[in-house]
Amino acid sequence: MSRLLIAALMALALAACKPAAEIAAPAANVVDSSDVPDPNSYAQPNRVRIEHLVLNLQADMAARTLAGSAELHLKWQDDKARELVLDTRDLQIRGVQGFDGKAWKNLSYRLDTADLILGSALRIKLPSALPRVRVAYSTVPEASGLQWLTPEMTASKQPFMFSQSQAIHARSWVPLQDTPGVRFTYDARIRTDASLMALMSADNDPRAVRDGDYRFSMPQKIPSYLLAIAVGDVVFKPISARSGVWAEPSVAEAAATEFADTEKMIQVAEKLYGPYQWGRYDMLILPASFPFGGMENPRLSFITPTVIVGDKSLTSLIAHELAHSWSGNLVTNSSWKDIWLNEGFTSYVENRIVEQLYGRELADMENVISQASLAEALKSTPPADQVLALPPLTGRDPDEALSDVAYIKGQWFLMFLEQRFGRETFDAFLRHWFTTHAFTSSHSAEFERFLTVELLEKNPGKASIGEIREWLHRPGIPSSATPAISSRFVAVDKAQAQWLAGDVPASGLTGTTWGTQEWVRFLERMPATLAKTQLDQLDATFRFTGTANPEIAQRWYPLTVRSGYTDARPEIESFLTTIGRRKLIMPIYVELAKTDEGRAFAMAVFEKARPGYHPITSGSVTEALKVPEPEAKQP
Ligand SMILES: [Zn+2]
Fold first, then answer.
1. Max Cα separation, the chain?
2. DSSP reduced 3-state for 533
3. How far apart are CA 579 and CA 308, in angstroms?
4. pTM (predicted TM-score)
5. Rounded CA separation 133/124 (Å)
6. Ligand 1 center–CA 406 separation, angstroms
7. Which residues keep their CB under 5 angstroms from ion ligand 1?
8. How much distance in Å is there from the Cα of 226 to the middle of ligand 1?
9. Looking at the chain, which terminus has fewer C-beta neighbours within 10 angstroms, N or C?
């Protein structure tokens, strides 16, 4: 997934507050992910694993439900087992049948009381270790992993539905073993309105006839969080023989143009890390309410339209989602505590693709921006959550692990290794990791062992095990880290200082040649507040208020709020009511919530915007706009 949590959200996360001594030391000879239990799933993969899934579902756009059946093909480790435990959340179970090799027979089952984070375990009684079990069920309109958009919320004024299964939302639309430690293949038949197209994280056919009845096959094994579905009025535009975009008709052309470099990106990544192993690589451009930047659903990345800005300056998001085809989709974390193995690796690979395609200067600028974001996030992150190899997320929502620590500190660790061992050696090592662990799930202890044997011991004297352990198991940024620097930002900082001192007018800034990253730097490094005359001058020269570039809006609007510059309010309202991507809108809500007047304005805007937001976004905004409790007295 693209980076989504910001400092303010981190502050809201429940702190685990485990003392450092409790951080598990890496176990020796750990090679099998199945011996690390996943506390965020009720499944028992040590006894049985789903090998294959067959979905047969009707997507009812009016009722906002998926209804039908999920057939699970099982591989038993424990032949004496008489119970199958599946993860579910808010599913309406209609019946369960088992296949004994000859006939389907009804089975008795029990749905446990729901846990707030985990949902309900579905416990199915078995006469023997049956090879197949089929669950008939339907979803509820509020399913946490699905968003149903009304026609008004889309460009083509047609209903739209899409899934977001990561981290543990697949269980809200399919009963299964919802843990990244289990991989399976799947087939699906999806029926819906004949006027709409259905797509999945599978073999989508660019020439498919739109008739409301669609069949899919996913021959590569994937974990449940990569199970994905979308239904809407989308059309296909090719980019290359194996790549293209699906989008609403009015967006398709602009999307194909913006992401024209996708084939080049695939080739760059293949050269670095080996062949692309998933067949086609297509992108589905979602309506602007999509709460994230992108989601790496295999063969079909889900992408926010907010990166279509006309100059390809935000296409590192595509590099990120594509990079997941190696880091994550090919080798993922076996439970969410080790998400850095997925997102940290992906941020590193993303940056290598950006460097290769667009040059070192852009790659450097992006690293400076993300490292500044990490520094900000760490201020409000409990030390126990600042380590890469987190302790088990027992009792916690795994979405909390999707932090800047996993993405940026993880990436920084790999950059450190690249610097110490040299690019050639490190590239070969990483390729070796992907090849030897392809289509499996892994964890930090296994990586530490692999790193020790394959990199440290084969290249003695380059880095010590102490340095490696500091990166993995200690909070903060190790002293062995080299901060990114950008010569272009040095020039931006100089120009900004001259403008702030009144030595040059806004029109004298070299801003006309700046790209998105330079503008982000310029705005992020501003004093907390500016005078109205300064804001007027910037707006008159660069038209920040009402900008079509959401990365600029994300920085400009909070600055106007802090500075009491109410001239921007109508455009803030328009921004917040058209875009639902959390990363972009949360900084504005957080800033508004700091004063009574700002909160009142934000509440009124949220009221209008809410029907268009994803439940994940609405939850974040509700949390940010809460009146803070008076601080509890320390005993
Ligand atoms: Zn990602």
1. 85
2. helix
3. 13
4. 0.92
5. 9
6. 10
7. 1, 343, 346
8. 12
9. C
